[in-house]
Amino acid sequence: MSELRKDIITGRWVILASERGKRPDDFRPAAPEKKEEVPAFCPFCEGNESKTPPEVASLRKRGTRPDQPGWRVRTVPNKFPALSRGLPPERHDEGIYQWMDGVGVHEVVIENPCHLQELPDLPLPHIQDVLSTYRERVKSIEEEYQYKYVHVFKNKGREAGASLSHPHSQIVATPIIPKQVNEELYSCERLHLQLGECIFCRIIREEKKIGHRLVARSDHFCVVTPFAPRFPFEMRIYPLRHSPWFTSLTEKELRALAKTLKLVLCKLRDVLSDPPYNFYIHQASNPNLPHEAWVNLEKSYHWHMEIIPVLTRVAGFEWGTGFYINPVPPETAAGFLRS
Amino acid sequence: MKKRLLIVEDEKNLCLLYREELTKAGYKVTAVMDADTALEQLKKHSFDLIITDIRMPGKNGIELITQIMALRKDIPIIINTAYQSYKHDFMTWAADAYVVKSASLDELKDKIKELVG
User: Fold this and answer.
1) For the segment A296-326, what is each residue's pLDDT rounded down to a tens digit?
2) Of A230, A324, B30, B36, which is the most exposed, with the fewest CB atoms less than 10 Å away?
């Protein structure tokens, strides 16, 4: 019989259709996917720097100049942004509706100059450079007080929403806190009042004790499959040190996160034959702004990464109800991922 | 000397309108209705600017831009489409400007002027 499980933070229910339980092989493509090839032209490849807007940050060889070859990680603003930098937008009323100007930031982090070298292929110091770039860009954008939330994410593969195969991540800052993050912040505040501690710290303690959903752990991070995952093989990377903000990571923790992320992405590749995936960082709202309704934000929220391999399709049932049907229980997924 | 423009637009009436308006504006215009013909023109003649639609039968504008870049990286390109959503496709970054089609050609003419004079 299937099982209904509730996510303690979001309150979202999922259906674990365990009788339809599958093995990782069931998610592998029937025929090996066509090996990615370098397209005739790619605006993110080294040598094509003139096709992007001027870089806002880069890690590059000493002596090389901005917007020239010689970089390891390069961050550029979106050339045709949907949201543009501007003054704090005002909310306008239009009858019963509200709207505001599309103010925001949209940057692309080009993770390496080589088109075919994916994130897990990179050596650890290079992955650390990518993570360090995220941290520094988020810090810098958060200094602009009109942006309440800065979101870091990666789409890998067309099925996961990537329009270009060159390895890249994105940073989008918005003048409002996205609904999903807002609900998480509220829920964590409420749970903090109930439990007297951060719900994520509690989850980490429980998961380490039970062990069924634990995929990996180190001195600084642990990887788990959540109790009520929406998708098969969905994973979370939790930092063991409590902090609401990703930007609080120390150099030592960045190194450890690079190692953990590489491990997770290699496991996806090995166990599920390199599926498309999304990952994103969830952190608290801009620390330079008043925390609005959250009195205990610093104690109640805990930044983390969510990794979602794209193995199933979200369809009418999920869109219409908010329920997700997941054919692989997280305990089973963790078992495969540990092995 | 007149600047040479190559316009790729699959909608016949729009194609004629662009040719007429931009010729009036002082440009030498070649207008074609699909990507393959555009590539043939590019191999035969030199152009100062390319204006292309995205949604076209056969090769779409993104594929066309990719192939143009492999042939000639130096020609400026304007994407001229009815859709905002192609901004999410990073291959559009190969272009120099993105103009959303509207009843007026002012924005398109301004961009052309900005890029080639």
Assistant:
1) 899 999 999 999 999 988 889 899 998 899 9
2) B36
What mean pLDDT do residues B51-78 have? Answer: 92
Chain B touched by A52 (CB under 8 Å)? yes
- Measured between beta carbons, the chain B residues lying within 8 angstroms of A168 are 90
Contacts of B85 (CB under 8 A, 6+ apart): none
Q: Measured between beta carbons, which residues in chain A are less than 8 angstroms from residue B87? A: 78, 80-82
> Is A212 known to be catalytic?
no
**Which of A41, A50, A55 to probe the B interface (max B CBs under 10 A)?**
A41
Rounded to a whole number of angstroms, the distance from the CA of A169 to the nearest CA of chain B is 12
Tally of residues, chain B:
117
How far apart CA A311 and CA B96 sit, in angstroms, is 36
When the pLDDT of each residue in chain A is averaged and rounded to a whole number, the result is 92
Least confident of A16-30, A62-76, A238-252, B75-89: A16-30
Confidence band, pLDDT 50/70/90 cuts, at residue A150? very high
CB within 8 Å of A203: residues ≥ 6 apart: A8, A224, A238
Name chain A contacts of B73, Cβ cutoff 8 Å: 41, 48
Spell out the CATH class of A3-30+46-338. alpha beta
Round to whole Å and give the CA distance between A25 and A41.
35
**Min distance B20 CA to chain A CA atoms (Å):** 28
Of B69, B88, B98, the CB nearest to A40: B69
Mind listing the domains of chain B with CATH numbers? 4-12+21-116 (3.40.50.2300)
Cα angle B65-B67-B69, degrees, rounded to a multiple of 5:
70
What predicted TM-score, i.e. pTM, was given to this entire model? Answer: 0.92
Measured CA to CA in angstroms, residue A282 lies from A63, A71, A170, A247, B100 at distances of: 36, 28, 14, 11, 34
B50 and B38 Cβ atoms separated by less than 8 Å: yes
Report CA-CA distances (Å) from B40 to B8, B32, B67, B108. Answer: 12, 10, 12, 24
Whether residue A115 lies within 8 A of chain B, CB to CB, comes out as: no
Check if A160 contacts B (Cβ < 8 Å). Answer: no
**Whether A178 contacts chain B with CB within 8 A:** no
* Residues found in chain A: 339
- Mean pLDDT, range A224-240, rounded to an integer: 97
Question: Would you call A51 and B88 a contact, using CB atoms and an 8 Å cutoff?
Answer: no
- Residue A19: predicted pLDDT: 57
Q: Above 60 in pLDDT, residue A29?
A: no
Maximum CA extent, chain B: 37
Query: Distance from A166 to chain B by nearest Cα, in Å?
Result: 10
Query: Looking at the predicted structure, is the pLDDT value of residue A285 above 60?
Result: yes
